Amino acid sequence: MNKEKYLLTPKLHSISQENSRILIVSMREIANLVGFCSLYEFEDVIYDADAADMLKPLSNDDGIIRKIYKLAKYLTNSKKLANFLVPGTNPYLIEQEYELFFPVFNSPFELFALHAFKNWRQKCSQAVCYIDEFWETYLQPSSLYFLEYLKDFDHIFLGNKNSVEAVAKITGRPCSYLPPGIDTLKFCPYPQLPHRSIDVSYLGRRSPVTHQALLEYAKQRSIFYYYDTIKASGTKNAAKQQTFAVNNAQEHRFLFANLNKRSRYFFANRARINEAEATKNKQEFGPRFFEGAAAGAVLIGDPPMTAEFYKHFDWPDAIIKVPFDAPEIGEIITDLDSQPERLARIRRDNVVNTLLRHDWVYRLRTVFETIDVKPSQIMLSREAKLKKLAYEIQHASDVLLVS
Fold first, then answer.
1. What order of strands is seen across the sheet that includes strand 22-25?
2. 196, 229, 197, 202: which is closest to 326 by C-alpha?
3. Distance of CA 63 to the CA centre of its chain
4. What sign does the CA torsion over 116, 120, 121, 126 have?
5. Are 285 and 291 in contact (CB under 8 A)?
6. Lowest-pLDDT range of 47-61, 66-80, 201-215, 223-237
7. 126, 373 contact by CB (below 8 A)
8. % residues pLDDT > 70 (the chain)
9. What is the residue-averaged pLDDT of the chain?
10. Entry pTM
């Protein structure tokens, strides 16, 4: 089977690939912020674990076409008529029939990309989509026309649990929560067990109080404290996010995994912890917890106080809880360093539990079970490999995952 990944170019497109049963739509050529790379990793696991084609639009008609469509929809009150009047600049026709249409979006604001796909519902037996970040604050009257694109799906999966009920009500479609995952094979430190030369990693959103305390601690103790130093522009609240663009999502994830496997302590906090205006104090969690745990680092941070989080991180010391603002963080780390046996257990438990429960292939299985699609043999083989690796770590007495 030809496994070429397709780009959507600005003309009428069609492909006919035999044997592929899933059509993935990825936004990776449009949205290249570092925070999106985890989601593209999910797409890559789907692509590698099944007979799939991947389409990567080069444009989301962001701008004048979208505004014209919104006006046409408002004036006609008809999605069908608006689609006819505003055909878009990148129309795409699917020639092959697929068992599953599976577009993946970073946020609901990317849903307009579906405007380019003119016959996906006719060519795909079933259709699901995954929208990673969907806060309730996104459900504004001026944005609800985007959600009409969801009404043709058999099932909608969201990365924010608090929005599931509202989206299901608005769209009239079944909607489920699908938590983040991780490519555990990429992040697992076993069997190479690289030396953990990075003492503390604190990436992305951070508390200035905790960061300053860690800087002072690093100067006093001569430890290796790894943190972002970039200053992005052109993105809303970029300073709070500590965000930046990447050239290649796969290359970034490879680098990130290797950094994490060499980190002793890894900070993870609840999603958008420093943007209460965006979350309305609804607590969620993102991929950061899985990224640290899968690599065998000791997680430190302020997690969401929700049953959903503790359902997924229910083993002892899954995270060392500290306030977001922790001026005494140096003392906390010093105390942890005095407990090497506890740290070794934490690292082992983090890796084993992530291998057994949080690989992206398990999230794909949840999707398949929801819509009654059988797993591929490659999926089953990956699951067996994960279980075997976890068993080896659990029963290897000389594996401490600490150095």
1. 6-8, 52-57, 22-25, 98-105, 124-131, 155-158, 175-177
2. 202
3. 26
4. negative
5. no
6. 66-80
7. yes
8. 84
9. 89
10. 0.91
